[in-house]
Amino acid sequence: MQSNPGQLLSFTPSPKLDAALQAGWEAWQEAARVEGQQRVAVWLAHRLRNPALKTELSETIEALLTSDDPEERSLALSEIAEIAETIDDLLADTLWEGVLAAGFESEDADLIFEATSHLAAIAEDHGDPLAAAEYYIDFLNWRRQPDHASDPENVESAFDEVVRLAHLDGDRRAAALYEFRQAQFTRLAEADDERATTGDWERDGSPNESWS
């Protein structure tokens, strides 16, 4: 059985998946593989309140649990995470954490940034702009590591979001600091400096930090 604050107990097709979801992505992934495709499909359809998903997500879940292709698994995970958004924040957050982990593992900047954007949006929706900003700060720090590359637009977008979220959180000093750092990066990008696409663009090699 599972319960939500203010709601009556409701039946769950898989208490193991519910418990694993509370423990995070790795625990849920392991539990899902043990439960198998059919049980996971039933559980997702129930959790997302859409019986049709048992059939519609069948191939997607199969790819997620059994595919040897990391890109195929990531795409399947992203598809389910997008469906979960606005319906089940805990599920969406956990699955996007899985996408983020896959992005880091494959050093896929676009995948990392996609997951970062979704995770930050969920954190902001829950009234935590600092936590949202920290996802973007983590992306900036990852991108600054040797040989890590990305589209400069992703870096610019990450800076935009950190500045916006700092203002939202009431920290003008942090907002001004990141505006300054962004201006430095923008000058490099406009000059077609290779640091705008690969490696560290900062003179100071220390990582970016949040304002906590």
Question: Any overview of this molecule?
Answer:
By secondary structure, the protein is an all-alpha fold. The chain has 2 domains: 77 residues, no CATH class; 96 residues, Serine Threonine Protein Phosphatase 5, Tetratricopeptide repeat. Helices cover 68% and strands 0% of the residues. It has 11 helices and no strands. Helix 3 crosses helix 5. The longest helix is centred in the C-terminal third of the chain and has 19 residues. It is elongated. The two termini are 37 Å apart. The relative contact order is 0.08. The N terminus is likely disordered.
- Biggest sheet descriptor: none
> What is the architecture of the largest domain at the second tier of CATH?
Alpha Horseshoe
Q: Please, what is the CATH homologous superfamily of the largest domain?
A: Tetratricopeptide repeat domain
Number of strands: 0
Q: What's the CATH topology name of the largest domain?
A: Serine Threonine Protein Phosphatase 5, Tetratricopeptide repeat
Low-confidence stretches: 1-9
- Measure the end-to-end span: 37 Å
CATH secondary-structure class of the largest domain: Mainly Alpha
Q: C-alpha Rg, in Å?
A: 19 Å
The shape is elongated
The averaged pLDDT comes out at: 94
Alpha-beta content class: mainly alpha
**Percentage of residues assigned to helices:** 55-70%
Strand content: under 5%
H/E series:
HHHHHHHHHHH
Count of helix runs: 11
Number of domains: 2
